[in-house]
Known about the structure:
- The structure holds two protein chains of two kinds.
- Chain A is an alpha/beta fold.
- Helices cover about 30% and strands about 25% of the residues of chain A.
- Chain A is built from 23 helices and 24 strands.
- The relative contact order of chain A is 0.09.
- By secondary structure, chain B is mainly α.
- Chain B has twelve helices and no strands.
- Classes of the chains: A alpha/beta, B mainly alpha.
Amino acid sequence: MEHFWEINKLSVSYKTMDGMTKAVDQVSLYVDRGETIGIVGESGSGKSQTQLAALQLIPVPPGRIDEGEVLLSGRNLLSFSRKSREMREVRGGQIGMIFQEPMTSLNPVKTIGAQIMESITLHRGLAKEQARKEAVALLEKVGILDAESRLSDYPHQFSGGMRQRIMIAIALAGDPEMIIADEPTTALDVTTQAQILELLHQLSVEKHIALVLITHNLGIVARYASRIYVMYAGNVVETGTAEEIFHQPVHPYTKGLLKAVPRLDSEDERLTPIDGVPPSPANRQKGCQFAPRCRYATEACLDGGIPPMQEIAPGHFAACHLSSVRQTAATAEQEKQENKKPKPAPGEEAVLRAEDLCVSFAVRKGLLMRESGRLEVLRNVNFTLHKGETLGLVGESGCGKTTTAKAVLKLLNEATGKVWLGDQDLLAMPERTFKKQRRRIQMIFQDPYSSLDPRMTAGGIVGEPLFPYGLVKTRQEYDKRVDELFRLVGLEPSMRDRVAHEFSGGQRQRIGIARALATNPDILICDEPISALDVSIQAQIINLLEDLQEELGLSYLFVAHDLSVVKHISHRVAVMYLGTIVEITSSRDLYLDPLHPYTRALMQAVPIPDPSAEKQREQVILGGEVPSILRRPEGCPFSNRCSHATDLCRKEQPQPKEVKEKHFVACHLY
Amino acid sequence: MKQRSRFSYTMKALFSRPLVVAAAIIVLLFLLAAIFAPFLSPYDPYETDITGALKGPTAAHILGTDKLGRDIATRLMYGARTSLLIGFASVMISALIGVLIGLVCGFYGGIVNEILSRVVDALMSIPNIMLAMALSMMFSSGTIVGLMIVLGLATVPTYARIMAAEVMRIRDSDFMVAEKVLGMSSARKIFSHLLPNCISPILVVLTANIGTTILCESSLNFLGLGVAAPTASWGGMVNEAYMMMMLTPAYALAPGLCIMLLVLGFNILGDGLRDAIDPRLRGTL
């Protein structure tokens, strides 16, 4: 049977300083008309490279397409040269593309109208007037209000979500039969993500467009893709229908991936991480690429060459040397060993308490820089963190979660209110006095790359505070303590002398955690500690944080945008919206009985990596986007997006109320 | 260890280009000639011999003799000493002062930065050579040390500015926030973290500036504002010779070519270093 788009045994390699490295290795896949497929993989798995190479969009040199064919309705695209008229007609014409960064994929100096019309006139040969009409129609189609007048606006006048809509309009401008969306929502908020995905889905149904969703997020493909390709280290390791992949996965990597991701709808059992790190394209293995991290691997896996695709069921293929019987036996064994004890309950003692915490920046205008107003980033934030507890702080961009984290660390001079560390208000203390106490409250950063000094050795970074705080007296004590800290976070002490960039992202994050632990703190502020890591590594760090909490009795303020992760790790969760906490309750309660309309919308927007669970969920997609703090609505900050909003909501800001036991909501509905 | 391997990576990237290798060889040759001048030449650069003045190239004097009968080739080697010494030393002086000013400006920001930046702005609006001339007429008494200081002071603003910009870029990065969270002292933050992370662009400018400084030094010597008479200097030699250009072309051309080659060498080396350290700038050479 002829498929609409078919890639056969495509291989791509890049020339680097260390010789040729294979980015894509013998990848085959197909898409039929009107079908939605998902390509899932971690960074470096070759998922984007496959598609870019198929469209001859990779830079040559250093890149090179070694072999394979790319068939579009039976025509081999690789037989055309990359700058040929045929290729140009395919790109942006028959095939539209949407990229990850809506901020950089639009030309900032041209109006969006010009950019859409350019594509229309180029691919459809319409006259200017007609193209203009068509552009307006497209913008309306992708949900841009007031399309006619917005044609002459520039990209910077749109929000991220709106820009991604414009990108979709441009992709649609050539009247494509297929759209390749490369991580189309990774840079967007959860509620916006739901809108964009829904829009893409509707368009593909309505216009019978084939849709290729490239993503690292299993939840997204579970909701929309009918078939899924799982890629690892340049190979497709498993492919099948969404149900097969999620319910009867065969390849150990697919299985591992599914167990490593916390799910919103599951009880808090411990995650099972995949050990090790994904291989970089520069050091590919001889045998199965996954073998070094696979718990079932045998010698055949390590030396037996890359395993061929085997058909498990019609249409369900996996590339694994092992029979599924052997695997199952091994899995049962493995699972017995894994402890499934519940999280220890937190203590009663409050270690950190924020009381009416506000942060506002002066807005200055004019020649004399006179203060013309105040930008309120945080408005009366109140919370208590108990000993041994994890309090999750979740919300979309601009909700003030990172600001809260910085404020309680006394990193912002603009913070007012009170932050009680034990019985001392640290905001009232001068920096000089507080400096000596800083060791009690430490921080873990989001970006494991920029948070470690690139010029220092790992040991130097971890051990830096030991001498200044007098925690060690001699060189021997210092060495002993640094080794101890390395072991505590699961790193080999022998790696002490390496510098930061020799470590992988996950290992770097461990170094960051070890540095934070060096001063024996009571509290760790974790600011998105796993969002920059690969999916299979995230579980390792989450488990590490859980173990450390149990072992050392730490309290965590865990800031993240990923609700599934926050729910998994936290005892209690605070949901933030535009600088206020709208709901705060136990994480179990939050999932089972969310009260605030925003919390509910957020819950619904989070995709669950399970196609059958997804089908049963009600799909109510929250409209609009998080407004900028400059344009915060009067009254309840959520009132302009809330379907239950009354006049009272638009006038008066609701105060938090204890609606149920220990369940606080700031909403006029309760 | 990777620290070394990063260094070797930079070196590999640097010397993978023939042009940079050629520049390095030129600089190295001049350096060797300057250091071993007394062994390479049988002549004294200061001993005059009026009877043998202004002779063209001969077997004994491969570049001929100058108006006082001194061997030009020997004078050139001793001139290289002057140029390189002044080049290196004055760049060190200016980098040291500039880096310190930049560190303070960048780290403390605010009013300190405002004031220092405006002073630097004002100084930068005056061409370096003018500034050097003015300083030279005021302070320099024709000694090499005087010239070093004068030329050094003239380029302080460049370093201060680059350093301040670099410090401000690094200052707010996560690892510096981590230092604050750990409660580390300012001295530690500045000298253990900021300085090592900000220094590589300074090294690049420093290398290229040796060339510029040598050019500046030669210009001052040509104008007679540099080192005093008997000391050999290329600028001074060109000054002596340019009126006799038709008579003995080698007399003026040789020091001129030396200036050109050495300056070009340092400039290419600086450019190459910049490209090797920051791959985003690649392709400018």
